[in-house]
Write a structure and sequence with these properties.
The chain has 356 residues and is mainly alpha-helical. It is built from 20 helices and no strands. One of its GO terms (molecular function) is mRNA binding.
Length: 356
């Protein structure tokens, strides 16, 4: 004997479709729900809005919000927060602000998630003073910021190179009863390294260790990138060794940082050894960034013949060169105008997508 589906069953299916990016199927199922007389509840409506926002369908998401209001199902703070987050990620401050005002006008008090989403929207539009005012006003409104709120603000500041301001916000966290976590430090480390403030970044690494926090993969990759950018590849490889001992599995970003660092130093042999050995062990699948770094190093120090070997390998593996890859190769070709064969090969690749 079968069981009839209910609104909860359909809501779960809709979530699944959205997770796979199957927006058309999700909307088709929603229409079927309405057609068959099911009455969506607030969870179903909010799930639909979340799925639409996650797939960049902000106009449709707003239409669903209006549908909720027409059907006598008033949106709650989770519904509004979902919309604000969607607008924030789309860089649409007007949409986020209108949703915020709509929420307030309907007597729905924002919670810490709604505030944090609005802070994110402001930061993505470089309105950092307004974001800070919002954070500082939260406690007065009876909704103190949490660590995620501060992390969001610090990430926005670091992304715009405002690391001094970000450091001050780190210091302010504890005054608000919040304590930094590893994500806080990851954002700050990344910001400091991007503006070449390596010593300060490494000082915060010591602070992380003193606080007894465990470094995660993002932390290791960020510090490793800092060592390599500072020309401290040996220290970077020691950190890589520690990472393995601690049981943190490297990812594509880790290997790309290492290969790029060795290529930049002119140590192409070491870079290709790492590339070949890890690839052979099936521990990692090189991507366009890996190949572009390798091709750049090979073109600069070995020559076109060796570069073509790796270009052919790249294409055979189904990895399409991007604009950065072509820039490297074209510069190399023009610096070797006397060698016509590589130019013919390039012409064939551009024409057919592979060597003919």
């Amino acid at each position: 004997r079968g069981c009839s589906p209910n609104i909860h069953t359909f809501t779960s299916l809709i979530k699944g479709y959205f997770l796979e990016g199957r927006v058309h199927e999700a909307l088709g199922l929603w229409k079927r729900i309405i057609r068959e007389g099911f009455v969506p509840n607030i969870i179903a409506f909010t799930s639909l809005i979340h799925g639409l926002c996650s797939n960049g369908k902000m106009g449709d998401a707003v239409s669903v919000l209006h549908e909720m209001e027409r059907n006598g199902c008033p949106p709650n703070v989770t519904t509004y927060s979902t919309l604000i987050d969607g607008f924030a990620k789309a860089g649409n401050l007007v949409g986020a602000s209108e949703t915020w005002n709509n929420m307030m006008n309907h007597g729905c008090r924002p919670n810490v998630i709604a505030y944090t989403c609005m802070v994110d929207a402001l930061c993505r539009n470089y309105m950092f003073h307004q974001a800070q005012c919002l954070v500082e006003n939260m406690t007065a409104e009876g909704c103190p910021p949490n660590t995620v709120t501060f992390n969001t603000f610090i990430k926005g500041l670091c992304g715009d190179g405002k690391v001094d301001w970000a450091v001050k916000m780190l210091e302010k966290m504890e005054k608000h009863g919040c304590f930094p976590n590893i994500t806080t430090y990851n954002e700050l480390l990344d910001g400091l390294i991007k503006v070449n403030r390596f010593e300060e970044a490494f000082g915060h690494v010591r602070e992380i260790q003193e606080r007894g926090m465990e470094l995660n993969l993002v932390t290791y990759n960020t510090i490793l990138n800092g060592f390599c950018q500072a020309g401290m590849t040996k220290d970077g490889m020691q950190l890589f060794g520690k990472m393995l001992v601690e049981g943190t599995k490297p990812d594509a970003i880790t290997y790309n940082i290492i290969i790029h660092a060795y290529c930049k130093q002119g140590r192409i042999s070491t870079a290709t050894q790492i590339f070949n050995s890890i690839g052979a062990a099936k521990e990692w699948q090189p991507d366009v960034i890996t190949y572009t770094s390798l091709l750049s190093g090979i073109c600069n120090l070995i020559g076109l013949d060796e570069a073509m070997v790796y270009l052919h390998k790249m294409i055979r593996e189904g990895i399409c060169p991007n604009i950065g890859t072509w820039n490297v190769l074209v510069r190399c070709f023009f610096s070797s105008l006397g060698q016509l064969e590589p130019i013919y090969i390039l012409d064939n690749i551009l024409r057919n997508g592979q060597e003919t």
